[in-house]
Amino acid sequence: MKRLVITDMPLKGQNCRIMAQEENGRICSVHLEKLGQTRLLGSIHIGKVQKLLPNIKGAFVEIENHLPCYLPLIPQMDIIFTNRAKKSSELKTGDELLVQVTQEALKMKAPCLSSHLSFTGKYLVLTTGNCKLGVSGKITGKSKERLKSLLEQALPKDRDYGLIVRTNASEASEEEILLEWRQLLAEKDALLKKGSYSRPFTCLKKGESGLTDELKSLYWDEMEKIVTDLPEVHQQILSFVEQTEQAKGCSVSFYQDGLLPLYKLYRLEHGVQEALQEKIWLRSGGFLVMQQTEAFVSVDVNSGKNSSKKQPEEFYRKLNKEAAAEIARQIRLRNLYGIILIDFINMKASESREELLHLMREYVKTDPTKTIVVDVTALGIMELTRQKEKKSLQEQLQEVLEKTIP
Fold first, then answer.
1. Of 7, 60, 70, 278, which is least packed with CB atoms within 10 Å of its CB?
2. How far apart (Å, rounded) are the C-alpha atoms in residues 386 and 360?
């Protein structure tokens, strides 16, 4: 079972908010944010096209505070214009349209936009731009059939939006799901109406707070306890749990101890610092070296000084299995994304190599962010890809440490 700890703490001279998930006494997921920070991700704006980039099939669009963002131009884009009737979907300089931030600025890249809007609830995501009904790949069997049948019967055939059923919906009641669908639909209609008479560069919907996003993404059947020492956060969590049937089995605790801060009790500062180190020791005496580059993340598995001379193949097999479990944890903990290349210790037996590949695929199934174990290359390097959703832990820390310019 897991627990979630939410608190404020000093980190390298700056105060920040930390949301850390713990499993079996070890931190498995961390989110850092600057105190008072507003999130751009998920926000919806009336943007204005500043420049078309036909060579790379994109456009620069300015949003609130004249922030330049990148909008990919895809075939059959569904665009909601606010300054002209939709005679065609062809975009022109000066056009004003509704856009949503789908990816925050990463490294030297501008924030990324989409003209297809998403409205996210606990169980459903309502989308403009297509009319498809999709179900999370983690919901299977009768549960998937039940949810799809429920919504196919409820949704009008002539709708101009789509729905995606989230993993959390598998344990929700039909009443909860249908109620949320109506709420998301009303939210979408109200936003489109507001957008029709608002000025360009207006922010129509702010991005959700890190807390709200974290609570919506939790697998509540695995969550045993949430602990915080922040009164306003405690009230928000209680309110969320009260409105979420699945969450009612989770204990919510308000920590009060003036002598020992919550972040020290759970050694969160140490956990963050450890997650930023390149070298990670394994219980067997081996270690990992994880390095982030512009192009990919490399992971090197080393046996250390503890290699067995009598049965080296069996020792390497056990070490690689231990390393696979730790690598899966570290990928999620550090929120690594893109291409991840793992150089395990070479094993002669093909059965051992196949076992390791299968094991890694099982480990990444528990990651809420889509992670794919592609294959093993001819050079024996295991290749993974992980979807970009949020900034890596290293990038989050850099953002926290940035000084606000007055």
1. 278
2. 13
Please tell me what DSSP assigns to residue 378.
T
Number of H-type helices and E-type strands within the chain: 9, 21
Residue 386 forms beta bridges with which residues? Answer: 338, 371
Question: What CATH number should be reported for the domain whose range is 41-207?
Answer: 2.40.50.140
Domain boundaries, the chain: 2-38+209-270, 41-207, 278-393
Sign of CA dihedral 19, 21, 26, 30: negative
Report the C-alpha gap between 369 and 336 in whole angstroms.
10
244-to-120, 178, 248 alpha-carbon distances in Å: 15, 14, 7
Can you tell me the distance from the alpha carbon of 282 to that of 268, in angstroms, rounded to the nearest whole number?
20
What is residue 109's predicted lDDT score, i.e. its pLDDT? 83
Fold classification of 278-393 (topology level): Aminopeptidase (3.40.630)
304, two tokens: 């250390």
Closest CA to 323 of 350, 297, 344, 298: 344
To the question of pTM greater than 0.85 for the whole model, the response is: no
Q: What is the pLDDT of residue 231?
A: 96
**Under a CB-based contact definition with an 8 Å cutoff, are residues 322 and 283 in contact?**
yes
Q: Look at residue 305 and tell me whether its pLDDT is greater than 80.
A: no
Cα–Cα nearest to 338, from 284, 390, 274, 262: 390
Residue 69 bridge partners (DSSP): 61
What gap in Å lies between CA 214 and CA 211, rounded to an integer? Answer: 5
